[in-house]
Amino acid sequence: MTSLIRFEALSGVMDDSPPCYVLEVGEFHFMLDCGWDSSFNMDFIERAQKWAPRIDAVLLSYPDIAHIGALPYLVGKCGLSCPIYATVPVYRMGQMFLYDWYQSFQNYEDFQIFSLDDVDQVFDKVLQVKYNQQVSMKGRGHGLQIVPLPAGHMIGGTIWRITKMGEEEIVYAVDFNHKKERHLNGCLLESIARPNLLITDAYMCGTALLRRKFRDEALLSTILKTLRSGGNVLIVVDTAGRVLELVQLLDQLWHNAEAGLLLYSLIFMNSVAFNVVEFAKSQVEWMSERMLRMFEEGRNNPFQFRHAQLCHSLAELTRLRDAFFSDKVVLASQPDLDSGFSRELFLDWCIDAKNCIILTSRARIGSLCSKLIEMASSPERIGTKQITVQVKRRVRLEGHELDEFRVKKREQEQQATKLRLEQHRRRSRVDVVSLEDEDSDEEEKKSDATENEFPYDISYTAQGPDYWYNRAESYRRFPKYPHFEKLIHAKSYLQLETKVRMVDLMRDRMGEDQENGVATPGEVHDIPTKCIQFVQTVEVFAQLEFIDFEGRTDVDSLKKILQMSKPKQIILVHGMAEQTEKLANYCRKSLNMAEDKVFTPRLGDLVDATIESHMYQLKLTDALLNSLKFVHVKDVEIAWVNGLIKHNCSEEETEDQKITAMDVDDETNAENAVDIGSDDIPYLDLLPSSEIPSHDAVFVGDPKLSDLKQALMLDGFQAEFSHGVLVVNNVLSIRKRADGQLHVEGIVCKDYYAIRDVIYKQYAIIYCLMVETEPRHVIVVGSGLAGLSAALAAFNQGSRVTILEGEPNIGGNSAKATSGINGCNTSTQRVNGVQDDAKLFFSDTMKAGHGINDMQLVDLLTKSSADAIDRLTEIGVDLSDLVILGGHSVRRTHRIPAKNGKPVPVGFHIVRTVHQHLLNKANSVGSDRLKVMTNVRAVSLITDADGSVVVGLRFEHADTKETGQLYANSIVLATGGYSNDHTSDSLLEEFAKSKIDYPTTNGPFAVGSGVKMARLIGAKLIDMDKVQVHPTGFVDPEQPDAGTKFLAAEALRGSGALLLDHSGQRFANELGPRDYLTGRIESQCKQSKDVGRKTAYMLLNDEAVDLFGRPSFEFYWKKKNFFTKTDNVEQLAKLLNVEAELVNATLKQYAEAADGARDDPFGKTVFPVIFDPGRPIYVARITPVIHYTMGGLKIDIHSQVLREDGSKISGLYAAGEVSGGVHGANRLGGNSLLECAVFGAIAGKYAAMVPVGAQAGDL
Fold first, then answer.
1. What is this structure's pTM?
2. Cβ(728)–Cβ(753) below 8 Å
3. What is its quaternary makeup (predicted)?
4. Under 8 Å between Cβ of 971 and 950
5. Are 1042 and 941 within one domain?
6. How far apart are the C-alpha atoms of 186 and 152, rounded to whole Å?
7. Is residue 1030 among the annotated active site residues?
8. Alpha-carbon distances of 917 from 51, 188, 684, rounded to whole Å
9. 8 A C-beta contact, residue 505 and residue 462
């Protein structure tokens, strides 16, 4: 096989833990099964969670918990989002297993590990396949195919065969059964000859199995003996797998009059019994020939049971007992007896010596089932035994607990009603549809009535004791049409879905279900309950029997199968250490397999199972990769590569590579230091052009003469075969030689060359191309996030990059950003359950910008946001903290979690990580392709003679005032905005004079130098009057009139901060957009003499502080002294110099609005915290400050700067705050860093790719 093959076990090696493995084939990662058990081992989850973002496909073997149990948690909580492949029965029965497993816990405790919504998310990702169906992988899995093969054991059970380009194969086969059973055929593993790699289990090694005849006789005799002695039989089974074999067997035994079982009841009991049987009826084609014959010959579905009754609750079981007064045999789940009806019945029945408990499968060590199996197999089987168990119960609420519940429920209902009304008021307007259109629609609906019995969609909710069924189903709603009335029937509005959802399980069983004695959902109403638990010692008097119905291949048969299949390599998993080693020794000795071809991995081991012995892994430099000329061959692309193998060299970080952030203490910098990592994988770099050897053109392909004939005829030539030779136009003959080459004979004429061209088209031709080794030179002016992103993108394209930074340290304003970076539809949002998309993000950005934004740029920004977050995450930026800022509809602002209890400044950390990543890449190629010049300011741009192309710039050293010139193929301006421009040619003075007296959060470098340089060569400016005044800049008590102020991060208000005026009253919605809040402060608040501007007060309590992050808050409070702590509202009022009653009233009204008792006067709907007047409150003074300039250079979607006439300035690009159009009249919080990351990368990419004189749109 032409790919690297690696294998790692996340669970299920050297013990009895559930199987879950990662198989890497090339760059494609398969997860093989994803099992869990009722121990809910979170160590396994941690291992799986690290792999989740890299998994490309999940392959499921069986539908039981041991093979799919962890999927709801990984999909719902850990962001596993790849396709999941399973056969149709595994898809159907897997749902039943998970629903029943969830309910078995939820019946007796408040189960929080995963939800039914998580279960449904899993099966939304499942792609259903059939046996022997070839499925091709996409993307990184190009050339890979998977084929599901029958495995026996359970319905739909699968052995997975994985092939690469149709060559050698990998076979994953665990828990299979080669023997035929009543309802299933055996597997066909012995038909797979010489797989390159076989992954199989050692679970049954060392276990002797009874023949099926003796096993069935043992079961029957045990049942008859127990029933005739007046006892009941509990058979512990799974939900929808092996139970089908058992219930089929027992139903046939009951039908045999000679067995004498008709006097007794046979009951199949679990929460989804009805649906399990219904699905089994519909999947007969997946079963044995015997089942098919029963169905085809007698037209009798083998799962239309004649004697087995279905039961879904203990209450139903009690009614059956009262109705028939007979002893009974109950098949109940769960198999490990750690939860479910089987556990409840065991606790009830084990104290009666007449009863019998039959265990049919092994369970994890430590489970109740494993303890009972040990007791059943011990020599002292007769007599009483004691066992200690934890008992959980759900009991009704009574007395004051019931009263409290009802009060709370009533309050919740009131709040929910209020929220619904609020959402209704805010709902977007509905298009008005004319009565004529409605009439025409009615005609169409009538004509479609025969095709769809339910033509409308509305939400349908079922009620009943099994309230959990109602979850996880959502229906689309049609808009309400005004001025139109019509009598409708609610029943007509239910649309039936083909997917199985929880609501499907609440089908009306009034018909066929009542024949089985099942109660209808409407008989019982939901009752308030609470969960209790206690430890109880139980005396076991009942008879215990273990009769193996697991349906797995025994060790002797497995050895025979291995002898026939003769795998080249084998990985042994899912077995105890002793069993695994025994099977490994057998493979080495009896199969003569080499020591290094038999793998017995442990947790954490990485198995390298690559077949080829002369395969090496190399990395290609971006410069080399960009120089290659690929040609298509069938479904792949190939290129001829000439390169020089090099090894990485990493040097210690030098002093000039370090960066510091403004207003961040040294201790924070030390804690957030990043080491330059080393990579031992060699790489292939460009060869000098003088050393590149020449080669003849290479023709790749093997066209058939028949295909060539069709191609020639399509081009208008006459082509016929004569004695195996293709004759074309009677002037040329083509034959195929023994070595596969085409031999052409004929007259050299016009037709000859035309025919030759047609022949050439049948091949992929790789010519000898000389590679230009001199890289393009890109200058990036500015070293904030936009500049660094541009430099990294240009470097990745193979360019030589020079960064100019006018300050001593890199980072600019980006290093001071604290709110976070926005992103929609990211993995962090999915893990946190946040529903977001580019359309909603686009709407929020346009709304914040008052609709004057450049829509193309906003569309590109929002759709590229997830990729930008991913790029930062891949290089080591942890953006797993998620908050909501003002103006956003959902949580989409990503931040960095606190480290060791201390805040991590998001802007500073991103800038430093990108910078370090760039330095590492430069060090790894060992060249001078990156140069960083600090304290060097760009002064002006240099153009060619006619001023059409930018070819360089003039610069000045900040310290020495020495000047110089630099020339480049392209220049990227990332110089920031003009928020602190008080120079002689001030842009603030020219375009936003009313804002010039505001203090600012920007450094002295924010003077619009990039805008001014580009303006001088004819660049167009846009939105220059749009200057964002941030509503909350801290007033420093020691320097209240300082012109530069520290920003009060938006996340403070997002965490629940209140804003009060000088009278102690609220005056705005604290979560409103920035321009709205600034306007409210300017219109509602008083001017402070010491500040010289309007000011307001910001309040936080301890709960808000914790939401924001106490370490970060203490930086503002204790280090900067912006906040003052007051012990209660009286001290607060004294500090504000207002009456305490006024502040008290303000806080009370806010609490009432938060509780839903009243509408908030400012329209606030999200209330992160409520203030207690008797507890500490922190207060700071804030004032509006200039924070950002939305205006700047006009750019296109390639970040190329435009002229006044709309044409592009060749060689000049811009990104970040220096450009305009993205934000419109007002920037949405969190979009500044995103703009830098997105458009910086775009600018660097096109600056490195577009030739001088060309335009980005020409590509």
1. 0.51
2. no
3. CPSF is a heterotetramer composed of four distinct subunits 160, 100, 70 and 30 kDa.
4. yes
5. no
6. 5
7. yes
8. 23, 51, 19
9. no
Q: Which one from 1053, 1066, 1187, 1198 is the annotated catalytic residue?
A: 1053
Q: What would the two tokens of residue 1048 be?
A: 């009060």
Q: How do 1058-1060 and 1096-1101 pair as beta strands?
A: antiparallel
Question: Cis peptide before 334, with omega less than 30 degrees from 0?
Answer: yes
Residues 178 and 296 in one domain: no
Domains: count for the chain? 5
Measure the CA–CA gap between 396 and 391, rounded to whole angstroms. 16
Least confident of 756-765, 837-846, 1113-1122: 756-765
Q: Which residue has the tokens 């049609």?
A: 478
Q: 177 and 273: one domain?
A: no
CB 1110 within 8 A of CB 1117: no
Kindly name the residue from 1030, 1066, 1074, 1080 that is annotated as catalytic. 1030
Please tell me the distance from the alpha carbon of residue 420 to that of residue 425, in angstroms, as a whole number.
Answer: 9
Residue 850 known to be catalytic: no
- Residue 416 placed within a domain: no
Domain end position, chosen among 372, 396, 420: 396
d(CA 1022, CA 1202): 11
Rounded to whole angstroms, how far apart are CA atoms 833 and 114? 12
Measured distance CA(880)–CA(309) in Å, rounded: 50
- pLDDT beyond 70 at 883: yes
State both tokens at 818.
């604290």
Same domain (yes/no): 1089, 972: no
Asked if residue 234 and residue 203 are part of one domain, the reply reads no
Residue 1009: both structure tokens together? 């130098």
833 neighbors 817 (Cβ within 8 angstroms): no
Q: Which run of H or E residues covers position 471?
A: none
The DSSP call for residue 1201 is E
- Identify the domain boundary among 585, 601, 617: 601
> Residue 713 belongs to what domain range?
698-766
In the chain, the amino acid numbered 175 is D
Are 752 and 887 part of one and the same domain? Answer: no
Scan for tokens 């109602």, then name that residue: 470
Strands across the sheet containing 821-822:
821-822, 893-895, 881-883
Residue 508 lies in a domain: no
Residue 412 makes CB contacts below 8 A (sequence gap 6+) with none
Domain-embedded: residue 1125: yes
Least confident of 229-238, 405-414, 726-735, 747-756: 747-756
Is the same domain home to 781 and 928? Answer: yes
Nearest CA among 627, 1, 607, 107 for reference residue 340: 107
The pairing of beta strand 930-934 with beta strand 197-201: unpaired
Domain with 1224 in it: what CATH number?
Answer: 3.50.50.60
Q: Are 1199 and 778 in contact (CB under 8 A)?
A: no
> Tell me, what's the pLDDT at 322?
64
Helix residue ranges, H only, 926-950 = none
Q: What is the token pair recorded at 62?
A: 């069986």
Q: Note whether residue 655 is domain-resident.
A: no
Note the residue count of the chain.
Answer: 1259
Q: Give tens-digit pLDDT for 909-957.
A: 999 999 999 998 888 876 688 999 999 999 999 998 778 899 999 999 9
Query: What is the distance between the alpha carbons of residues 1070 and 1052, in angstroms, rounded to a whole number?
Result: 10
